[in-house]
């Protein structure tokens, strides 16, 4: 199946059938790097949530991504979803993802329709991330928070859902080679957690 002609109702239907897995059957850095499970064994996991904001454009849907601010201490300049740690007052991953999207890029909750949770993503940094798939109205307005984000942009949904656009890559960190997925769109290199989550979404939507 192809997403070249986007159908929001089809996405809603497929999302309703999704069943998020636990860590054992879920996604994460440990899929390509099994040693991460050994390193994290017994360590407390910090819960986080990210929003996968699919802009409902029948003539060509897009996914809103951000470029993290260069001034940030961690993961500066990387391409990511809006999101962050789940606070006790959030109450749910959906609430946390929506709150973070507003804090980072000013995306209003009224423009967001949450659809489903994807499998949790176990990051090698010790975060257990819940990706929240959502539809966003095309008339959305953003207000970028420069303390967290340098810019926000859209990548065509059909491009991200094409599994042939994904490649595996690696880099040496702490004298060990670590593997991850990467996808390049124009001047943007999307890799690591963000690419891993998008690849799982592509698989779940059966678009090959």
Give structural notes.
21% of the residues lie in helices and 34% in strands. The chain is an alpha+beta fold. The chain has a single domain (8-156), classed as Alpha-Beta Complex (Nucleoside Triphosphate Pyrophosphohydrolase), CATH 3.90.79. It has five helices and twelve strands.
Number of strands: 12
- Note the run of SSEs as H and E: HEHEEEEHEEEEHEEEH
Determine the structural class based on helices, strands and strand pairing: alpha+beta
What is the name of the CATH class? Alpha Beta
Measured distance between first and last alpha carbons? 6 Å
**CATH topology-level name:** Nucleoside Triphosphate Pyrophosphohydrolase
In one word, what is the shape?
Answer: globular
Task: Output the keywords.
208 residues, alpha+beta, Nucleoside Triphosphate Pyrophosphohydrolase, nine-stranded mixed beta sheet, three-stranded antiparallel beta sheet, 5 helices, 12 strands, 21% helix
Give the topology, please.
Layout: H1 8-16, E1 27-28, H2 35-40, E2 46-55, E3 62-68, E4 79-80, E5 83-85, H3 93-105, E6 112-117, E7 121-122, E8 127-136, E9 149-156, H4 157-160, E10 167-173, E11 176-185, E12 188-191, H5 193-204
Parallel strand pairs: 1-7, 2-8
Antiparallel strand pairs: 2-3, 2-5, 3-4, 3-9, 6-8, 7-8, 10-11, 11-12
Short characterization:
With 208 residues, the protein is α+β, with helices and mostly antiparallel strands.
